[in-house]
Specification:
Layout lengths: L2 H35 L5 H27 L23 E5 L10 E5 H22 L6 H23 L4 H5 L7 H19 L20 H20 L8 H33 L4 H15 L8 H24 L8 H15 L9 H29 L6 H6 L1 H6 L14
Length: 424
């Protein structure tokens, strides 16, 4: 390996690791967002879920998930086979063909396989974080963690293999640059299955279609979480270019950053306008979800569209998500943080928008990819949720739900108002 290749290897490995660290920081964003959008009596439990699900994702992806998603030698384009304990990770250079598709060794760039594993594992945790917000305030902690094991170790990696591991969706021409489908639609599909079996929170819906709003306890915290997620998304999308060590790739990464930011900004403005038109108020929770919707939508392809088109994609996503949240609520599907709309509806929009600027994509391939990811993840998740419901139960008691799951599940409150001094 010559000096120039060594420098490229070091630079690309460093870029992938730093991008992965940015995505890991999104775990903090999800935790703060969800902690702000739940009621005070459920804050400790939602924080516990977010910390522990990240740990479970890291362990399960190490044990089997990575090798399911990126097998050394797959059985076929649908089933990758299974190996354990990172058996095909030896930290040797992982070859990535340069952008001109020249396979000559002098034109190849490389990065550490361990860096690739780290970058991929934080994406798994992101998909699982989507689920936690949708089922919050009434799901048993241990049922959720049990599902996390299966989701991060098996469900996510299998559908991820179909696209990013070289499976049949990749062969078909399905395009998903950074995960509008593989990550976000996947997480939303699993969340929808759980919510349908779990049912709405007590007091959320009344007779004759009446909907009772249940506001979150800490909007400053929710706003902080959104801004952390916005920042982390630069690693999410920018890092998905994988390399940065030549002029062409560096320019692409810069374009990805700009387009990602533009889509988020447009999502904010669109959500503000839509909320004002529908409610007559500047609804902060909708504005925050508008930013996230723009980010999710542009994730399918932030490299191909112009900045103006990226802004348009984000704008449509930001307006659509407000309508989607209201519509899903009217269907009596209780999603406290709007995760199904933000990550599912916006993910689908982003995957379809790929066809506007990416010449390699086709509408048929995108539709097949959307249907495949949703169908598999929803069905597999529904089966797992049903198994958990039939064995250990997935919902807390009515009394625990009324009092809040902080004390019943975690034994402590996030905002204790009174303390007992005990005997002196």
């Amino acid at each position: 390996m010559d000096k120039l290749t060594e420098l490229s290897y070091a630079l690309d490995t460093f870029y992938l690791l730093i991008s992965g660290a940015f995505v890991m920081w999104m775990a903090a964003g999800f935790a703060m967002l969800e902690a702000g959008l739940v009621r005070a009596k459920n804050t400790t439990e939602i924080l516990t879920k977010n910390v522990v699900l990240y740990a479970i994702a890291c362990i399960m992806y190490m044990l089997c998930g990575y090798n399911l998603m990126y097998p050394g030698e797959a059985v076929n384009s649908v089933w990758p086979g299974i190996e354990f304990l990172l058996s095909n990770i030896d930290n040797e250079a992982a070859e990535v063909i340069s952008v001109n598709n020249d396979t000559d060794d002098d034109n190849n760039v490389v990065y550490s396989k361990m860096a690739d594993f780290f970058f991929q594992v934080v994406f798994v945790a992101t998909a699982m974080s989507i689920v936690s917000g949708a089922v919050c305030e009434r799901m048993k902690l241990w049922a959720f963690l049990g599902f996390s094991v299966v989701m991060t170790g098996f469900i996510y990696p299998i559908q991820g293999y179909w696209k990013w591991g070289g499976g049949f969706l990749d062969t078909l021409g399905f395009f998903d640059f950074a995960g509008s489908g593989v990550v976000h639609l996947c997480g939303a599909s699993a969340a929808l299955a759980g919510v349908l079996l779990l049912g709405p929170r007590k007091g959320k819906y009344g007779e004759n279609g009446v909907i009772y709003p249940i506001p979150g306890c800490n909007m400053p915290l929710a706003t902080l979480g959104t801004l952390i997620l916005w920042m982390g998304w630069f690693g999410f999308n920018g890092g998905s270019e994988l390399i940065i060590s030549n002029v062409s790739e560096a320019n692409t990464v810069a374009k990805v950053f700009v387009n990602t930011n533009a889509a988020a900004a447009a999502g904010v403005v669109a959500a503000l306008i839509t909320a004002h038109m529908m409610f007559g108020k500047a609804d902060l929770s909708m504005i925050l979800n508008g930013a996230l919707a723009g980010l999710v939508a542009i994730t399918a392809d932030p490299a191909s569209p112009s900045t103006l088109l990226s802004t348009g994609i984000g704008f449509v996503a930001g307006g659509l998500v407000v309508v989607a949240i209201v519509t899903i609520d009217k269907l009596r599907i209780d999603d406290p943080v709007g995760a199904i709309s933000v990550h599912g509806i916006s993910g689908i929009l982003g995957l379809l928008a790929v066809c506007l600027s990416n010449e390699e994509s086709t509408l048929s391939a995108q539709l097949i990819g959307i249907a495949t990811i949703f169908g598999f993840v929803f069905t597999a998740s529904l089966a797992m949720w049903f198994l958990l419901k039939s064995t250990m139960g997935i919902r807390v008691s009515s009394e625990d739900e009324y009092q809040g799951v902080d004390f019943s599940e975690c034994g402590m409150e996030a905002y204790p108002e009174f303390t007992s001094e005990g005997s002196k």
